[in-house]
Write a structure and sequence with these properties.
This protein is of the alpha/beta class and 436 residues long. It has helices at residues 14-25, 178-189, 203-210, 232-238, 253-261, 300-306, 322-325, 341-348, 366-372, 401-409, 414-424, 430-434; strands spanning 2-9, 32-34, 45-47, 74-77, 82-86, 89-96, 105-111, 117-123, 129-135, 141-147, 153-158, 164-168, 171-175, 191-198, 218-222, 245-250, 269-271, 274-275, 287-291, 311-315, 333-336, 353-356, 376-380, 395-396, 427-428. The protein has three domains: 2-56 and 172-275, Rossmann fold (3-Layer(aba) Sandwich); 62-96 and 103-123, no CATH class; 287-424, Glycogen Phosphorylase B (Rossmann fold, 3-Layer(aba) Sandwich). The strands form four sheets. A ten-stranded antiparallel sheet has the order 4-5-6-7-8-9-10-11-12-13.
Length: 436
Amino acid sequence: MLETPVLLLDNFDEDSQMLYQSMRSSGFDGPVLTFSDDGYLPEDVTSIYTYYCGKKEDGKPRYFNQIDVPDYWEIKASNSGGQVFDLNHERGKIFFANPLHKRLVKIVDWYDDTHVVRVSDHYNQYGFMYAKTIFNKKGQLVSRSYYDVSGNEKVVENFVTHDIILNQNDKVYLFKNKVEFAKHLFSEMNIYPTRLFYNSLSNPFFVSESLEDREHSDVLFWQEGYREDIPGNMQVILDGNSKRTSKIFVQKKEAYEKLIALGANSNIVKPLGYVYNFEKENQHTNNVLICTNSDRIEKLNELVVGMPNMKFHVCALTEMSQKLMSFEKYDNVRLYPGCKASEILGLFNICDYYLDINYENEIVDATKEAFLHNLLILGFNQTIHNRKYVLPNLVFDANAYQDMMRIILDASRLDLNLERQRKMAMTQNAQDYRNI
């Protein structure tokens, strides 16, 4: 049996992905396991469910109009999702994988005659349906089955009883909960976690507590935001009563500050952000970027007219309305209607500032991309999409747009503000993770 450190993630949301990437950037080469699977996991991340289903080595994600529907049913889609109709009766709803504009299918919900979701089909990055979720007449979760590439049912999770059934090698195994099921996977993989790095006080914590204590060196990465109390399971760690966990790294600044204010032991609780791989160095080009999927861009006219020496690049994945196209009359504005995602990423490389001033949905995960490309991010309270990467004092009321202009026009403070922006997001280097 291979004794190795293991990263165990409760789900694989954005924070989990950042932790995974930070660990890999620091040289961590142990197994990465997760209690979830959205069908689009990286190749080196293993779901405790689909591990038993095998992998399809070829195939592509399904485009929205490639799902199976009865004859004469109609599929409609936008850049945010899709619908299935039987004449005027909506029969299904399609959810896309990120980035949404590619319209690649992740989940299809199917409705009954009362428009209650009864079944969800889950599709993966290889284009096959790897799981199916069943709901009762009230739309409540009942069970989820996972299938191998031949359509054989391998794993069934009962959300009512919490039992998990595994069909493997002509045998049927019954596990009473996710903790037992995860520990069985360790045996299947022939590994023993000498250290467990985990990010949740639910199932991953219980897995840690159920293992044999070796060196009391497991680590909790706490990724939740601000709350008014210390969770009970965290208090177990703080009181020194955990079997294996001795350190807690808090990955949101406000959550860390609150825990310390509540009396958490600073020898156990430490702040730790993520390792970001920045795409370019700081530069001074007087270029401003705006990404939008609508023509509702707050104070665009005032900003363009008020800063004639700044070059505004306004891009959209779709065609632009006549209202937005009218900005072509300004010498300092360049419009990019129907822009490809790759072309938009190229614009991040030539700009200094990103203005999050458009209404409606964000496209191409623009705020995060701006952060990773070292653009100073500014926005309005009325339009801001993702405050995680934005300095609080660079989010203005729309009526205070002149304050935004003053920040942009003061190029002498650009580098300082970018440094503050990175610090606010708790940017770490790889060595910080190696020291854990």
